[in-house]
UniProtKB/TrEMBL annotation:
Keyword vocabulary terms for this entry: Transferase
Matches recorded under PANTHER family: GNAT-FAMILY ACETYLTRANSFERASE (PTHR43415:SF3), SPERMIDINE N(1)-ACETYLTRANSFERASE (PTHR43415)
Lineage: Bacteria, Bacillati, Actinomycetota, Actinomycetes, Pseudonocardiales
Alphabetical list of SUPFAM superfamilies matching this protein: Acyl-CoA N-acyltransferases (Nat)
Gene Ontology terms, MF aspect: acyltransferase activity, transferring groups other than amino-acyl groups
Family annotation (InterPro entries): Acyl_CoA_acyltransferase (IPR016181), GNAT_dom (IPR000182)
N-acetyltransferase domain segment(s): 7-171
Transmembrane segment boundaries: none
Pfam families for the chain: Acetyltransf_3 (PF13302)
Protein name: Protein N-acetyltransferase, RimJ/RimL family
Gene3D superfamilies the record matches: 3.40.630.30
Length: 174
């Protein structure tokens, strides 16, 4: 387990499947996330039951509140390789009543610290829809900077949106 100021990051359990299914079917939660094909509850339960351990190239954590021990979201570092010392970061807080409480920022900071200290990464990168102001702000608060803009690369709500490529280098985490 990895502990921050507000959250604890812990490996995913088979029992987490139902919460993920609920979050994936909430239009507010998935609004700015890349759409995947719909999964039935039985399929997601089977996927979680068969999930292998975290590895260097695929680290996935559930985000629990430190205060209540409640599962509120998920974050990952994926596609890391020792040759590049780089990984891609994903995050979402699925429990909307916890939005705006600093949990997303703390989970980002906590997982990036894990990436730099435990995995010895040199850089962590992500794509975020430019209009997703809360996410951009959370990433900037821990030190991510905008590297570039991919114009009209995300389709959502019937139109195209720009995405930002952001990255954080070892030593820049605040
Ligand atoms: C985006 C998300 C991760 C942010 O996490 P959070 O816990 O709600 O955000 P935090 O409480 O840590 O706040 C982050 C910052 O964004 C600001 N913020 C929150 N909502 C905002 C909004 N609608 N517009 C502008 N800024 C906003 C907060 O005020 C805070 O900045 P501050 O401390 O300077 O005031 C979370 O809302 C979420 O998971 N949303 C759905 C999925 C998603 O979009 N994931 C990111 C994909 S890249």
């Amino acid at each position: 387990m990895v502990t921050g100021e507000l959250v604890r990051l812990r490996p995913l359990e088979p029992e987490d499947a139902d919460a993920f299914w609920r979050w994936h079917n909430d239009p507010d939660v998935v609004r700015w996330l890349v759409a995947d094909y719909d999964e039935s509850l039985a399929q997601i339960r089977r996927r979680f039951a068969e999930r292998g351990p975290n590895t260097y190239s695929n680290v996935a954590f559930g985000i629990e509140t430190l205060a209540e021990g409640r599962l509120i979201g998920s974050c990952t570092l994926r596609d890391a390789s020792p040759e590049t010392a780089r990984a891609w970061f994903d995050l979402y807080i699925g429990e909307k009543d916890h939005w705006g409480g600093g949990f997303g920022t703390d989970a980002t900071r906590t997982l990036c610290r894990y990436g730099f200290e435990m995995m010895r990464l040199h850089s962590i990168a992500l794509w975020v829809v430019a209009e997703n102001a809360a996410a951009v702000r959370a990433y900037e608060k821990v030190g991510f900077r905008v590297d570039g803009r991919h114009r009209e690369s995300f389709r959502g709500a019937g139109r195209w949106h720009d995405e930002l490529l952001m990255s954080l280098l070892e030593g820049e985490l605040t």
